[in-house]
Structures
1.
Amino acid sequence: MLFEGIVITRVPFKERDLIVKLLLRNGLLGSFYIYGGQGGGKRHKPTVFEPGSMMKIHIRETKTRNMEGTELLVAQEYSRTWEAASIRYNIQAFYLICLYFELVMKIAPSQQGQAETETTETEGIFSVVSNALFYLENSLIQNKFEASQQLMLFMVKLLFHMGIMPDTDHCGYCQANLLESDAVSFVPAEGQFSCKNCFTGENEKGFLLRIKKGYQTRYQDYPDLLGTNFYESDRLIQYFCHQFHLKTMDLRSYKLLFKS
Ligand SMILES: [Zn+2]
C-alpha cells in the first residue's frame, strides 16, 4: 500500500530509526515507523524526513506499536517528492510552518480506525497545508516573503475549509450589510462581525476587507493580499482556537512567532 503526505513531526527512535507523522492526502494523520530513517550510517546520509517534506511511503504488511500503544505502519520503501529547502534557513518561516503543523495536529483526525468513506471533509486540510508550504517556499525563493501575509492567507483558507469562516457580509446581531456600515468590529468569542450600532470597539473594516480579499485570493496570487499585519492574523488564530477550545498559550510556535 502506498501513502503520500507531508512530514508534520518526527521523533528519533532507537539508534537510527524514526517515528514520523504525515498529513496524508485525505487530510488524516498517519504514523509510520521508518527503519534507518535518521540517516547516518557509514556514508553519513542525511535524513530525508525534514518537517514539511512531501514523502511517498510503501508500507509492509506487518505493523508495530509505539510506546503509547498506537499502531504504526512500517515503511518498506520511501522517497521524497518535494522538500521545503529554503524554509528551514529562515527562522520566521520555520516558526510559521511549526505553527501550521501544531494547528493541524489539533484538528486533523488520525487515520487509524477511520473508514475510507469518512475522509472527504478533511481533504481540504491537505490542500491548504500543501499550498501554504509550496507558496511559502516560493515567496522565499522570489524574495517576496512576508510572514503576516502568509499567515493571514493560511488562516483564512483553513477557516474556510473547516467550514467555520465568520460571516463577512452581515452583522451577527442585526443582519445589517457590513459593507454599508462605515465601522465594524470583530468579536472572536462570538465568531462574528458586528456593525457599529450593535457593538462598539475598534473599527476593523480593513480587517474585514482583508479577510474577504484573502478568501478570493488564489494561493499562487499571494502577493496580491496587501496590508496584512500580525495583529489581524492573531485575531484569526484567537478565533480559530476559540472554535476548537484551544489556548494559544499551549501552542509553542505561537509564542515563538509572536515574540520574535
Ligand atoms: Zn448590527
2.
Amino acid sequence: MKSERSERSKNSVCSDAIRLLDLYSEAASQSLILQQAQFQAVVADDAESNRFDLLIHAANERKQNAKYLYLNHLHNHGCSYEQLRNASKDLNAVVDAPLTKTAGKV
Ligand SMILES: [Zn+2]
C-alpha cells in the first residue's frame, strides 16, 4: 500500500503550501518594509530611528514562524517539493539580500 505522500506528484502544488508560502512572503515583505523605513530614518538623521527596533523584531518573528510553518508543511505533506523548494530559495534570496545591498550603497 502506497502512502499518501508517495502517491503525490512532486510537481503538484498543494493549496495549503501556496497559502503558507504567500503568508511567508507577506511576512518577509513586512519585515523589509520596516527595515527600509528604519534605514530611511537613519539616513534622515532621525534621532528616534530606534523606534522601529521592536516592530522589526516582531516582524522577523512573524517571518520566522511563517517560514517554519511552510517548511514543516512541505516536510510533513511531501507536496510539490521540487517546485516549492526553488521558490523558497528565491524567497530567501529576496529576504536576505536587499538590506545588505541598500546598506552597501551608503
Ligand atoms: Zn501540501
3.
Amino acid sequence: MSDPCRPRRGNRRRFLRQMGRAALGLGSIPFPLRSMAAGDAREMAGQANAPVAHKNLPDVVVVGAGAFGGWTAFHLVQHRARVTLVDAWGAGHLRGTSSGETRVIRAGYGAKTVYTAWAWRALAQWKHWEREWRTELFVPSGVLWLCAEEDAYVRSSLAALESLKIPYERLSSEEVRRRYPQISPDGVSFGYLETQAGFLRARLATRTVADAVARGGRVLVAAAEPPAAATARLERLRLADGHELAAGHFVLACGPWLPQLFPQFLSQRIRVTKQDVFFFGPPAGDRRFESPGLPVWIEPASWFYGVPATDGHGLKVANDHSGPPFDPTHGERIASPEGVATARRYLAQRFPALATAPLVETRVCQYEKTPDSHLVIDRHPHYENVWIVGGGSGHGFKLGPTVGELVARQVLGLGGEAPPPEMRIGAVAYPESVDSLATSSF
Ligand SMILES: Cc1cc2nc3c(=O)[nH]c(=O)nc-3n(C[C@H](O)[C@H](O)[C@H](O)COP(=O)(O)OP(=O)(O)OC[C@H]3O[C@@H](n4cnc5c(N)ncnc54)[C@H](O)[C@@H]3O)c2cc1C
C-alpha cells in the first residue's frame, strides 16, 4: 500500500540518535535476567536495548498497540527495524485491555517465579523509560499483601522475593493497623509490603509508548484481517480497507481479539471474560486513600485488590475472579449491580471510613485468560515469520517492557531468553464446556 504515514527521514534519524545515546551511556546486565536492584534501571535498560547494526534493516508489522504490541514495536524500533504498528482503534482506546487508568506492578507471583523476575526487570525498565520520556508513569506506592494465612502461594512468593533480593517488609496484623489506620485488618493474620512496587498509569503509558514508536516508525489506525495460512511464510497482511502491509516479520498482539482472529487454535487457549472495576469517592479533603498514605493492596484469600485514589479518580476496588464471557468489540460496558453490592460490602469491611462512600465511576474491562494464567508467546503454528503474543490473564500489563524486549529479540533472531514452554500455544487448553477457570492472576 502507499505509505502516507512513513516518518520523514530526519525524524527517524534523530530518534535513533536519541535512542542510541540513551543506550550507550549505560552499563551492562545481559538478558536473561539476574537479580538486581530496581535502582539499576539505567544500567539494565541500556544493555538489553543497545541497538544492533543491521545492514538490511528488517521490516516488521506489529498488530495491536496495547502493552505487548506497543512495547514490542518500541524495542524493535530501538533495534533499528522498520516498524509499522497497527491498531484498529488507536493506542489507549477504551475497549483495549491496556486502557485501565491504573495497573498494579508487583513481584509476588507464588511459584510462577518467571513472572517475579520479569516484573522486577520490567519495573526497572518502566522507571528508566518514564525518566527518558519525562512522563510520570509509575507511582511507587508499595504493594501490601493482606494474608489470611501463610499458605503455599505466600511462602513461594516470599521465597522468590528473597532469592532475587527484592525488598519487602513483613508486618503483623497489629502493625498493618498501626501503619495504615484506614485499613481494618480483620481476618488478616499478617501482611507483607513490596516496598518498591506500586502502580502504573496504564492508559497514559500505552499512549506514551505508541508515541515513542511513532518517532522512529509508523503508527496506523487500521483493522488487520487474520491471515489464512497456506504458505510457510506470510508475505503481506490484509487490512479491512483492502490495503495490504508487506513485511518480513509480523507480530500479532491483539489482546482479547486473538481468539476471534484465530479460533482454530486459540479459542480453547484464551477465554475473554468481563471484569468490573469500581471507584469509590473518599470524603472531601481526605487524603488517607491516596498514595503515599495508602499502598496498593491485594488479598489472596478473597481475590479483592485495589489501587489508591489517583488523578481525581476514586479508590479503585476490583475482584480477580473471572467474570462471564465477554465480546471486546460489541460488549456493553456496564458494571453489574451484584458486582457493585459485593464491592460495597467488601469496602465497608476493609475500609470502614468508606462504608457509605459514593460510587463515582465504574469501568468494564476484560481478561484474556488462559487456563493457568500463563501468557502466550509463540510462533504462529503455520507461519514461521509470525509471532503471537497475548493471554495477559489479568496480570500482563506490568510485564509489557520485558515481554516486548524478549519478543523483539526473538523476531530479529538476536537470541536471549526464549519464551518458556508453558507459554506455547499448545501448552494447555480449556475443557470444551468451560468458559473460564477459577484461577487467580495474582
Ligand atoms: C480489570 C483489569 C485489571 C487488570 N489489572 C492488572 C494489573 O493490576 N497489573 C497488570 O500487570 N495487569 C493487569 N491487567 C491485565 C493487563 O491489563 C493485560 O494483560 C494487558 O493490558 C494486555 O495487553 P495486550 O496488549 O495483550 O491487549 P490490549 O491492550 O487489548 O491490546 C490489543 C490491541 O490489539 C488491537 N487489535 C485487536 N485486533 C486487531 C486487529 N484485527 N487489527 C488491528 N488491531 C487490533 C486492539 O485494538 C487493542 O488495542 C488487568 C486487566 C483487567 C481487565
4.
Amino acid sequence: MNESVLVIGGGPAGLRAAADLADLGTSVVLVERRNELGGAPIRWKYKTLAPELRPTEEVMDPMIAAVESHPLVKVYRDSVVERVSRAAGNFHITLRTNGAGAREIPVRAIVAATGFEHFDASRDPRYEYGRAANVIGIHELEGMLKESRVVCKDGRKPKRIAFIFCVGSRDRATNPWCCTVCCGVSIKQGIELKRLLGDVEIYNIYIDIRTFGLWEQLYWTSMEEYGLNFIRGRVSQIYDTGTQLLVKGEDTLVRGPFEVLMDMVVLAVGIAPGEGTAQAAKVLDLNCNSFGFLQPRHPNVHYDSGKEGVFLAGACVAPMSIEEAILAGSAAAMQAAKFVREPALQGAAD
Ligand SMILES: Cc1cc2nc3c(=O)[nH]c(=O)nc-3n(C[C@H](O)[C@H](O)[C@H](O)COP(=O)(O)OP(=O)(O)OC[C@H]3O[C@@H](n4cnc5c(N)ncnc54)[C@H](O)[C@@H]3O)c2cc1C
Ligand code: SF4
C-alpha cells in the first residue's frame, strides 16, 4: 500500500503538517501554487508577529528549512493539483507545474491547507481603497514596516495615522464573520509605527476590541507604554483632500459624529477564503460553508473533512492565528499518519 501523503498549501499549516508527517516516517508531496513557501507571513513580508512582536523568521524559517531539507518531502512550487481520482485505496493526483507540464502521483491521503486571501477593500466604496493614494491595507503596511520605511505616496513622513478595524469583517454587506487576528495585528503595527517614526499619532477606530487570550496584553501595552488612541465608532466615508484624508464617522461612545484629518489610513482588512481554497475544494470535491471556507464534518473538529483520507488544516477552515494554524497542521498530520498506517496498526492490534 502506498503510504505517501499529499499536502496542498505551503503556509504555516501545510508546512507543519508536511514536517510532522515526514518526521513520523511518511513520505510527503507538498504542493504550493506560488513560487515560494511560507504562506501569508512570507508573501506579505510580516516583520514581527503578534502577540509578542518577535521576528517572523523565528517561526517561519525553521519550518521552511525542515521541509526543504527533509529527504521524505518532495516540494512542488508553482504547482496545482488539477485532477484527483480514487482507486484501490489510493488517490491518483494529476499535478500541473508551470513550465513543466503535468505528472501523475499516487498518494494514500491528502491534507488541504490552502489558507486565505485578504478581503479586497475596493469592494467597499466608503474607504476609497485603490483610489486615495494613502489608504492602504494592513498587509501592505507589513511590507513597509519590514523595510523600515513608512512614508506617504509623496515621500512625506506621516504624522497622523488612523487604523480602521473590521474592514470586510463583521459587516453583513460584505463578510459577517470576525477575522479574529486583525485587532491584535493592527495594535501590533501601531506599536511598531511608534517605535519606527517616534512623533506619530495613532488612532484606532474600532467596533469592539477582540484581542483574545494572551493577545490582550498588546492592547494594554499599546495604551500605557505607547499612547495609542482608541475611538469606538464606525466610519461612514473617507475623503481625499489632495494633501490629507478626511475621515468622517460616528463615535458610538459619545454618540455623535466625528471628523478627523489623517496623513495615512490603514484598513484592517479581514481574512477571506481565497480562490486557492475554492480550486482545491472543487478538485477534491469538498464541502464549503456559505462563506466559502472548507466545511469540516463537525464544526468543532476542524481536521475531519468528512471524506475518507482527506484532512483539513489552517485558515482554509476558519480565520485563525499562526499559532492556531500550526496546531491545526500538526493535528491533521497526526490523523493522516494514522490513516496511512491503518492496515499496519490493525495488524499490530490483532
Ligand atoms: C496582515 C496580517 C497579519 C497577520 N499577522 C499575524 C501575526 O502577527 N500573528 C499571528 O499569529 N497571525 C497573524 N496573521 C494570521 C496568519 O497570517 C494566518 O494565521 C496564517 O497565515 C494561516 O496559515 P495557513 O497555512 O492556514 O494559510 P496561508 O498562510 O494563507 O498559507 C496557505 C498557502 O496555500 C497556498 N495555496 C492556496 N491555494 C492553493 C492551491 N489550490 N494549491 C496549492 N497551493 C495553494 C497559498 O499560496 C499559501 O502559500 C496575520 C494575518 C494578516 C491578514
Ligand atoms: S479581529 Fe477585530 S478587526 Fe478583525 S474582524 Fe474581529 S473585531 Fe474586527
